[in-house]
Amino acid sequence: MNVRHLFVFALIVLVASTRLMTFLPNFSPLTAISLFGGAYFVKKWQAILIPILCVWTSDLLVNNILYKEYFQSFTFFYQGFYWQYLCYAIIALVSIFALKKVTTLRVLTMGLFGSFLFFLVSNFGVWISSNMYPKSLEGLIQCYIAGIPFIKGTLLGDLGFSALLFGTFALAEKQFPVLNQKTIY
Protein backbone atom coordinates (compact mmCIF):
# COMPACT_ATOMS: atom_id res chain seq x y z
CA MET A 1 0.00 0.00 0.00
CA ASN A 2 1.49 3.34 -0.98
CA VAL A 3 1.03 6.91 0.25
CA ARG A 4 -1.43 7.79 -2.52
CA HIS A 5 -3.66 4.85 -1.63
CA LEU A 6 -3.58 5.73 2.07
CA PHE A 7 -4.37 9.37 1.34
CA VAL A 8 -7.35 8.49 -0.89
CA PHE A 9 -8.63 6.08 1.77
CA ALA A 10 -8.13 8.65 4.58
CA LEU A 11 -10.01 11.33 2.63
CA ILE A 12 -12.93 8.96 2.07
CA VAL A 13 -13.08 7.98 5.76
CA LEU A 14 -12.79 11.61 6.88
CA VAL A 15 -15.55 12.80 4.58
CA ALA A 16 -17.76 9.80 5.47
CA SER A 17 -17.54 10.87 9.12
CA THR A 18 -19.35 14.12 8.27
CA ARG A 19 -22.54 12.07 8.09
CA LEU A 20 -22.66 12.34 11.87
CA MET A 21 -23.37 16.05 11.45
CA THR A 22 -26.85 16.82 10.21
CA PHE A 23 -27.18 19.75 7.84
CA LEU A 24 -30.31 19.31 5.77
CA PRO A 25 -32.18 16.26 4.49
CA ASN A 26 -30.20 14.16 1.99
CA PHE A 27 -27.10 16.35 2.32
CA SER A 28 -24.44 13.66 2.39
CA PRO A 29 -21.01 12.77 0.99
CA LEU A 30 -21.97 9.30 -0.20
CA THR A 31 -22.21 9.94 -3.94
CA ALA A 32 -19.00 11.99 -3.82
CA ILE A 33 -17.24 9.13 -2.02
CA SER A 34 -18.33 6.72 -4.74
CA LEU A 35 -17.16 9.09 -7.48
CA PHE A 36 -13.84 9.69 -5.76
CA GLY A 37 -13.20 6.00 -5.10
CA GLY A 38 -14.02 5.16 -8.71
CA ALA A 39 -11.68 7.85 -9.97
CA TYR A 40 -8.65 7.17 -7.77
CA PHE A 41 -8.50 3.52 -6.76
CA VAL A 42 -6.60 1.60 -9.40
CA LYS A 43 -8.02 -1.79 -8.46
CA LYS A 44 -11.64 -1.94 -9.58
CA TRP A 45 -12.79 -3.98 -6.61
CA GLN A 46 -11.38 -1.30 -4.26
CA ALA A 47 -13.12 1.44 -6.24
CA ILE A 48 -16.47 -0.18 -5.48
CA LEU A 49 -15.93 -2.04 -2.21
CA ILE A 50 -14.13 0.63 -0.15
CA PRO A 51 -16.76 3.35 -0.74
CA ILE A 52 -19.55 0.83 -0.02
CA LEU A 53 -17.82 -0.23 3.22
CA CYS A 54 -17.49 3.43 4.22
CA VAL A 55 -21.17 3.97 3.46
CA TRP A 56 -22.11 0.92 5.53
CA THR A 57 -19.85 1.92 8.44
CA SER A 58 -21.24 5.44 8.45
CA ASP A 59 -24.78 3.96 8.24
CA LEU A 60 -24.01 1.91 11.36
CA LEU A 61 -23.06 5.07 13.22
CA VAL A 62 -25.90 7.21 11.86
CA ASN A 63 -28.60 4.59 12.44
CA ASN A 64 -27.39 3.52 15.88
CA ILE A 65 -26.39 6.94 17.25
CA LEU A 66 -28.28 9.74 15.51
CA TYR A 67 -31.45 7.82 14.63
CA LYS A 68 -31.44 5.10 17.29
CA GLU A 69 -34.93 6.08 18.47
CA TYR A 70 -36.31 4.89 15.11
CA PHE A 71 -34.96 1.34 15.52
CA GLN A 72 -35.89 -1.28 18.11
CA SER A 73 -32.36 -2.65 18.44
CA PHE A 74 -28.88 -2.30 17.01
CA THR A 75 -29.28 -2.00 13.24
CA PHE A 76 -26.82 -3.43 10.75
CA PHE A 77 -28.99 -2.68 7.71
CA TYR A 78 -32.07 -0.48 7.40
CA GLN A 79 -35.07 -1.39 5.30
CA GLY A 80 -34.38 -0.77 1.62
CA PHE A 81 -30.63 -0.20 2.07
CA TYR A 82 -29.91 -2.28 -1.02
CA TRP A 83 -31.48 0.36 -3.33
CA GLN A 84 -29.08 3.01 -2.10
CA TYR A 85 -26.06 0.71 -2.00
CA LEU A 86 -26.85 -0.36 -5.56
CA CYS A 87 -26.81 3.32 -6.53
CA TYR A 88 -23.43 3.90 -4.96
CA ALA A 89 -21.98 0.79 -6.60
CA ILE A 90 -23.28 1.92 -10.01
CA ILE A 91 -21.90 5.42 -9.46
CA ALA A 92 -18.47 4.01 -8.52
CA LEU A 93 -18.53 1.64 -11.51
CA VAL A 94 -19.48 4.39 -13.98
CA SER A 95 -16.88 6.75 -12.51
CA ILE A 96 -14.14 4.16 -13.06
CA PHE A 97 -14.64 4.79 -16.77
CA ALA A 98 -15.99 8.36 -16.83
CA LEU A 99 -13.29 9.74 -14.52
CA LYS A 100 -10.21 8.05 -15.97
CA LYS A 101 -9.15 11.62 -16.65
CA VAL A 102 -10.37 13.85 -13.83
CA THR A 103 -11.52 17.30 -14.94
CA THR A 104 -13.84 19.80 -13.31
CA LEU A 105 -16.46 19.29 -16.01
CA ARG A 106 -16.36 15.50 -15.68
CA VAL A 107 -16.64 15.65 -11.88
CA LEU A 108 -19.55 18.11 -12.15
CA THR A 109 -21.27 15.94 -14.77
CA MET A 110 -20.79 12.79 -12.72
CA GLY A 111 -22.02 14.58 -9.58
CA LEU A 112 -25.22 15.54 -11.41
CA PHE A 113 -25.51 12.00 -12.81
CA GLY A 114 -25.12 10.59 -9.28
CA SER A 115 -27.78 12.92 -7.89
CA PHE A 116 -30.20 12.05 -10.67
CA LEU A 117 -29.54 8.31 -10.38
CA PHE A 118 -29.96 8.41 -6.61
CA PHE A 119 -33.26 10.28 -6.94
CA LEU A 120 -34.60 7.79 -9.50
CA VAL A 121 -33.44 4.60 -7.78
CA SER A 122 -34.10 5.53 -4.14
CA ASN A 123 -37.61 6.81 -4.84
CA PHE A 124 -38.34 3.78 -7.01
CA GLY A 125 -37.17 1.64 -4.08
CA VAL A 126 -39.53 3.44 -1.70
CA TRP A 127 -42.41 2.97 -4.14
CA ILE A 128 -41.80 -0.73 -4.85
CA SER A 129 -40.80 -1.76 -1.30
CA SER A 130 -43.39 0.00 0.81
CA ASN A 131 -47.14 0.43 1.04
CA MET A 132 -46.91 4.22 1.05
CA TYR A 133 -47.97 4.53 -2.60
CA PRO A 134 -50.24 2.51 -4.87
CA LYS A 135 -48.43 0.04 -7.12
CA SER A 136 -49.39 1.88 -10.26
CA LEU A 137 -47.88 4.48 -12.57
CA GLU A 138 -49.82 7.12 -10.63
CA GLY A 139 -48.35 5.84 -7.36
CA LEU A 140 -44.83 5.92 -8.78
CA ILE A 141 -45.35 9.49 -9.98
CA GLN A 142 -46.68 10.45 -6.52
CA CYS A 143 -43.58 8.96 -4.96
CA TYR A 144 -41.27 10.91 -7.28
CA ILE A 145 -43.17 14.12 -6.60
CA ALA A 146 -42.89 13.51 -2.84
CA GLY A 147 -39.12 13.13 -3.29
CA ILE A 148 -38.63 16.50 -5.02
CA PRO A 149 -38.06 18.51 -1.78
CA PHE A 150 -35.08 16.25 -0.98
CA ILE A 151 -33.27 16.84 -4.28
CA LYS A 152 -31.86 20.17 -3.05
CA GLY A 153 -29.91 18.49 -0.24
CA THR A 154 -28.84 15.69 -2.58
CA LEU A 155 -27.46 18.10 -5.18
CA LEU A 156 -25.75 20.33 -2.63
CA GLY A 157 -24.16 17.35 -0.88
CA ASP A 158 -23.10 15.56 -4.05
CA LEU A 159 -21.60 18.62 -5.70
CA GLY A 160 -20.18 20.19 -2.52
CA PHE A 161 -18.49 17.03 -1.26
CA SER A 162 -17.25 16.21 -4.77
CA ALA A 163 -15.63 19.64 -4.94
CA LEU A 164 -14.14 19.09 -1.47
CA LEU A 165 -12.75 15.61 -2.19
CA PHE A 166 -11.47 16.20 -5.71
CA GLY A 167 -10.25 19.72 -4.91
CA THR A 168 -8.40 18.62 -1.77
CA PHE A 169 -6.76 15.77 -3.65
CA ALA A 170 -5.71 18.01 -6.56
CA LEU A 171 -4.16 20.53 -4.16
CA ALA A 172 -2.43 17.78 -2.20
CA GLU A 173 -1.00 16.27 -5.41
CA LYS A 174 0.54 19.63 -6.29
CA GLN A 175 1.94 20.11 -2.80
CA PHE A 176 3.18 16.54 -2.27
CA PRO A 177 4.62 14.88 -5.42
CA VAL A 178 4.62 11.46 -3.73
CA LEU A 179 0.83 11.44 -4.26
CA ASN A 180 1.36 11.34 -8.02
CA GLN A 181 2.38 7.67 -7.85
CA LYS A 182 -0.41 5.81 -9.65
CA THR A 183 0.57 2.24 -8.73
CA ILE A 184 -1.43 0.81 -5.84
CA TYR A 185 -0.51 -2.56 -4.44
UniProtKB/TrEMBL annotation:
Tell me which UniProt keywords the record has, alphabetically: Membrane, Transmembrane, Transmembrane helix
Short name of one Pfam family for this protein?
A: DUF6580
From the Swiss-Prot or TrEMBL record, give the protein name.
Answer: Uncharacterized protein
Top-rank taxon of the source lineage equals Bacteria
What InterPro entries does this protein map onto? DUF6580
Q: Where are the transmembrane segments?
A: 6-24, 45-62, 82-99, 111-130, 150-172
Q: Which organism is it from?
A: Faecalibacter macacae
